[in-house]
Amino acid sequence: MFRKIAIAIAFSPRQQALLAEGRRLQQLFGAQLLLVHVGERTPDKEAELQRQLSELAVEPQGVSVFWEEGDAAQQILALSRGQGVDLLLAGALKKENLIRYYIGSVARKILRQATFPVLMLIEPQRTPRPFKRIVIHAGTKEGAPATIKAGCGIARLEAARQVHIVKDVKMWGLTMALAGEAPEHEYSDTRRSLLQDQIDRVQRMVDQCDECRGLRINIKVAAGKSGYELSKFSRQAEADLLVTETPHRNLNIFDRMFSHDLEYLLADLPTNLLLVPQE
């Protein structure tokens, strides 16, 4: 599934935990591990990195280290593309004195421009745990199949206990169309029919996805702002991974005027986040 996993390292206090998480994913997927640091290369940094890798029993032949200089986001993206990376691993930031995680400026630039999946971990652990409760966002018609495939592929490898697929539906159009022109029972019937149609669409995607077979999958339709609903549901489900698609970079004027739903997630991450580009 993922054959080359890159980790953006910054020699922060959580670096060894992030390396441990990367090591686990490397073993899970049978992948090659690439470590990328943008900044000064010093003997102290090299010694510290080697010490951490040695403690994690990382095989030297399974890891490559790259030292780059320049703009952090651009260098990480350029190297990842050049090396054929298909998953980039990075850590989110915790706001001081708050149980709240958010994406820093470098990571935001990467997320907006990455053409490969990016996994943000809110609390990397030195003794990593598998993802057992996974929420998958079936967003756009174009992006949902790839997102479901990626999320369910991980769920199968992790032997996840529960997989939820959330499909958001905009109800304001229905409300406006029927406002004042239809009795309440007709509105309820139309709403119910619309929600069932969305469930059926997701079920067809699941039926066509080999990675979904054998998994316990719950399909949920949520009405409202998808960023808020995704965050709320992920917390309620005690999810340890949320999988959603990367928004298309060609945003229209509506998206530029109002914050994209993803921005809500990035400002207050409910759990670990995997962003999957549209195919």
From TrEMBL:
Pfam families xrefs: Usp
- Segments forming domain UspA: 1-120
**SUPFAM superfamilies annotated for this entry?**
Adenine nucleotide alpha hydrolases-like
* InterPro entries from the UniProt entry: Rossmann-like_a/b/a_fold, Universal_stress_UspA, UspA
Q: Which CDD domains match?
A: USP-like
Q: Which PANTHER family match?
A: STRESS RESPONSE PROTEIN NHAX, UNIVERSAL STRESS PROTEIN UP12
Q: Which family does it belong to?
A: Belongs to the universal stress protein A family.
**What is the official name of this protein in its record?**
Universal stress protein family protein
Provide the taxonomic classification: Bacteria, Pseudomonadati, Bacteroidota, Cytophagia, Cytophagales
